[in-house]
Design goal:
- The complex is a heterodimer.
- Chain A is mainly α.
- Chain A has one domain (3-151).
- Chain A has nine helices and no strands.
- The longest helix of chain A is centred in the N-terminal third of the chain and has 31 residues, at 18-48.
- Chain B has 22 helices and twelve strands.
- Chain B has helices at 13-34, 42-47, 54-70, 77-83, 88-95, 118-123, 191-204, 242-245, 248-267, 320-323, 332-348, 358-367, 373-376, 382-391, 403-415, 424-434, 436-459, 465-491, 495-517, 527-535, 541-563, 579-618, and strands at residues 148-149, 152-160, 164-171, 176-183, 215-221, 224-230, 270-271, 280-282, 288-290, 297-298, 564-567, 570-573.
- Chain B folds into four domains: 15-102; 140-230, 2-Layer Sandwich (Phosphorylase Kinase, domain 1), CATH 3.30.200.20; 237-432, Orthogonal Bundle (Transferase(Phosphotransferase), domain 1), CATH 1.10.510; 435-617, no CATH class.
- The chains are: A mainly alpha, B alpha+beta.
- Chains A and B meet through helix 3, helix 6, helix 7, helix 8 and helix 9 of A and helix 1, helix 3 and helix 6 of B.
Chain lengths: 203, 619
């Protein structure tokens, strides 16, 4: 894998310098599109086993909408740290790293290593790869399903899915018939719940 | 999987708070949307919570504001400040369009929506402004100079006064340039006062007269009451005083025009109460227009807009009934006074009363009399002077009964007809008020002179013609001095020095007359403390001390003359027993001076306090 590619993947998952954003955006888009397509396939297979049609639709909806949007060149902005897609990928990547780390530790019996993606993104690209690996995409799909489940509240889930589909807060507010501030507040809570789960998850 | 892991993990206070905020707000919105007549109030939803965090309050209030706007209301910051006085910061943030906390957290949002053009709605997430739909929201400038104020775009500051700021502004809806007067928040504390202001300004907006600046709109934005009016480009009369200095007839013409306009307003029940050159704006073609009727008190409203008893208006131009806070006395004659004050300044180039401090100016306008214009400028016609002074009479009854009467008299003057003149008695009365020091001294001296004459001719068992003559001469000399000093006082710039001299001359005369009468142990000694007390009326501590020192010196001189006799180099006290009284007397003189100085200090402190307070209010 080329050095510049590795650098860019590292960049978009980690802390980004503003100047790099414009350069990294196309790479992120290419990577992201493939990742989502793969994850969608994985999610469909996951849901085949016993899930009801509606639920499957709901979960897949975001991926489907994204693929449509991507076909028209619409991607999440790389510089938006609050974006749910980005959050999903980062959480999944952290989880993957934690797993890899755990395996390493089991082998060595050694101490803890810093896991913060944002601070030490080195090694992340090994997992994610400059091309999205099917394994990572599968993890994204699983993580997505799981994160939606964690939201134990249909209103929150609706907002999350709509947001992943690319609707703006105003549009979501109109769809749900609630205040714009309420949408913003729910999104904030969703992010907090997800990050909290991500940090608190012991295993 | 892992579905029920709900307990907040350690260190996730943030999440717990977010959940609480979420709960409270969701419940509030559900209550709101349920409808049924009873609307939930943010207070009620906050009351059950222990010490709600600022973030929670911000979210809940923000939600309520958004829901109210959705319902077509226009909530204002002021209302929220009243409901939640201790949440100032939060509320300021909610109503400040430019602050980042106001911006939608998703405004930077991801990915342009699938249902395209959503972006523009995102940028314009600010509340709908009635009538401002066509204004490009993205063009909203930074908060500094070209700030936006409702539908107005503030261009520049024109003037700043005690109550408010006047801006040149563009009305973005009608696309015209107007003047906006914003009332500073400090000057109107309660909702009551604001409401009254609005009501009055709305009434004033009905004043339709070619010499009154028209008010376009009255409103409130972000808690600031304001009104917009036509922008008059020519500046105010205060900038054009020079043009009238050598043309009394032009001044008379101008004031006659103003008087007609005031009469029109008075008839509609408005009293301006703050007439002064800076409130008269001049059209480019020279036509005067009266502004600031927004401050005027509506005549039918006895409580008046004059907020919380504060003296409104400008001391130099204020009618006595206004300066003394007797609101019930305010009548059309108050505006006649204001017109007279404008005429006075046009004729002489200075306001009727103008002293270094507000307190002195107010006192002067209450008790003093303006210097007749002809003394300051001999080219002022006598008739015009008497018209002007009639306007400035202390008692409203002595002035013209209406602005129309003033206008009529001015017109008569301009046509060369006889003017309702003032009698000798009135002139004498004015002079008494104008020169209280002179008059009181002369009256006092006259009285003493008369009594001396009485004593000499009737009561005295052994009349001494020589000493009587010298006393009367001293009194006459004193009277002449009394007439000379005021002239000096007016001519010389350093008036404090003249006052000191005057005081010294008084002492000299007093001491001389006691000396001549050899009245060392007589009640005439009361003259010294009396003079000290009287010197306090200047309100100058130094003059009081000086007078006290002079009195002491005078007394000691008398004492020396009377009781000390020199034998070689040794003084011999002729009347040793009177010494103990003499030192007590000197001590009492000093004490009197001290007491008077203390009084002056207190009065000055009070006056400073009120001035500072007024300044604070106007900030």
């Amino acid at each position: 894998m080329a050095d510049e590619d590795r650098g860019s993947v590292t960049l978009w998952l980690g802390d980004l310098k503003v100047g790099d954003l414009a350069a990294a955006q196309p790479l992120w888009e290419r990577y992201f599109e493939k990742l989502v397509v793969l994850a969608r396939g994985k999610l469909r297979r996951l849901n085949k086993t016993g899930a009801e049609e509606d639920e499957e639709d709901a979960a897949l909806s975001a991926f489907n909408s994204f693929c449509e949007g991507a076909a028209r060149g619409k991607f999440p902005k790389l510089d938006d740290r609050e974006d749910l897609w980005r959050l999903l990928v980062v959480i999944t990547a952290r989880k993957a790293m934690a797993q890899a780390d755990r395996q390493r530790r089991l082998k060595r019996g050694g101490g803890r290593v810093g896991l913060e993606v944002d601070q030490s993104p080195l090694g992340l690209d090994v997992l994610a790869g400059s091309e999205p690996t099917p394994e990572f995409a599968a993890m994204v799909a699983e993580e997505y399903q799981r994160l939606l489940d964690v939201l134990d509240d249909d209103d929150l889930r609706k907002v999350a899915v709509s947001r992943m589909e690319g609707y703006t807060s105003d549009e979501i507010a109109a769809q749900l018939g609630c205040a714009r501030r309420t949408v913003a507040r729910r999104l904030d809570l969703i992010r907090k719940i997800w990050l909290d789960r991500d940090e608190a998850k012991p295993c | 999987m892992l579905k029920h892991e709900r307990a907040p993990a350690p260190g996730s206070d943030d999440l717990a708070e977010a959940r609480l905020i979420h709960q409270v707000c969701e419940r509030f919105e559900a209550d709101w949307r349920r409808g049924g007549g009873v609307r939930p109030r943010a207070e009620d939803h906050l009351s059950g919570l222990q010490d709600p965090s600022p973030k929670l309050v911000e979210e809940l209030l923000g939600l309520e504001i958004e829901l109210r706007r959705e319902a077509g209301e226009r909530p204002v910051a002021f209302e929220y400040l009243q409901r939640f006085p201790e949440r100032r910061d939060v509320i300021a943030g909610l109503f400040d369009d430019s602050s980042p906390s106001r911006a939608d957290p998703n405004a930077t949002a991801a990915w342009p929506p699938i249902a395209a053009q959503g972006r523009s709605t995102l940028v314009d997430s600010s509340p709908p402004r009635p009538g401002a739909g066509n204004a490009p929201a993205t063009a909203r400038p930074a908060p500094s100079p070209g700030k936006r104020f409702g539908k107005y775009e503030l261009i520049s500051e024109i003037a700043r006064g005690g109550m408010g700021v006047v801006y040149r502004a563009r009305d973005t809806v009608l696309n015209r340039v107007v003047a906006i007067k914003m009332i500073l928040s400090g000057s109107m504390a309660t909702a009551d006062e604001r409401e009254r202001f609005q009501r009055e300004a709305q009434l004033a907006a009905n004043l339709d007269h070619p010499n009154v600046v028209p008010i376009h709109e009255v409103g409130e934005h972000d808690g600031f009451p304001y009104f917009s009016m036509r922008l008059i480009e020519g500046g105010s009369l205060a900038d054009r005083l020079d043009a009238f200095r050598d043309d009394p007839r032009a001044a008379a013409r101008l004031v006659a025009i103003l008087a007609r306009a005031i009469q029109f307003a008075n008839e509609k029940g408005f009293i301006h109460c703050d007439l002064k050159p800076s409130n008269i704006l001049m059209d480019p073609d020279g036509a005067p227009r009266i502004t600031d009727f927004g401050l005027a008190r509506h005549a039918s409203d006895t409580s008046g807009i004059t907020m919380s008893g504060a003296i409104l208006g400008t001391p130099s131009y204020m009618a006595p009934e206004q300066a003394s806070g007797q609101r019930k006395e305010i009548s059309p004659a108050t505006d006649v006074y204001g017109l007279g004050a404008i005429l006075y300044e046009l004729l002489t180039g200075r306001p009727p009363f103008h002293l270094p401090t507000k307190m002195e100016t107010v006192l002067q306008s209450l008790y003093g009399e303006p210097i007749p214009p002809r003394e300051l400028r001999p080219n002022v016609p006598r008739e015009l002077e008497s018209i002007c002074l009639k306007c400035l009479e202390k008692s409203p009854k002595a002035r013209y009964p209406s602005a129309a009467a003033l206008a009529d008299d001015l017109t008569r003057f301009l046509h060369g007809d006889a003017v309702g003149s003032t009698g000798l008695f009135q002139k004498l009365r004015r002079w008494t008020r104008r020169e209280p020091e002179v008059v009181s001294r002369l009256v006092g001296l006259g009285l003493v002179s008369l009594l001396t004459e009485l004593n000499y001719r009737v009561l005295s068992p052994a009349p001494d013609a020589r000493s009587h003559a010298s006393v009367q001469m001293i009194l006459a000399f004193w009277a002449i001095l009394t007439l000379v000093f005021p002239v000096l006082h007016r001519r010389v710039r350093q008036s404090d020095r003249v006052r000191g001299l005057w005081s010294a001359a008084d002492m000299l005369c007093l001491t001389l007359s006691i000396w001549v009468l050899e009245a060392m142990e007589s009640p005439l000694l009361i003259g010294y403390p009396l003079m000290i007390a009287a010197s306090g009326l200047w309100f100058r501590e130094r003059i009081v001390w000086l007078t006290t020192a002079m009195a002491t010196v005078g007394y000691l001189a008398l004492y020396y003359h009377e009781a000390v006799y020199w034998v070689g180099w040794r003084p011999v006290f002729i009347k040793p027993d009177s010494l103990s009284y003499a030192n007590i007397y000197v001590a009492c003189l000093l004490l009197t001076g001290f007491v008077v100085v203390e009084l002056i200090k207190r009065i000055k402190m009070l006056s400073r306090y009120y001035e500072v307070r007024q300044n604070v209010r106007s900030k």
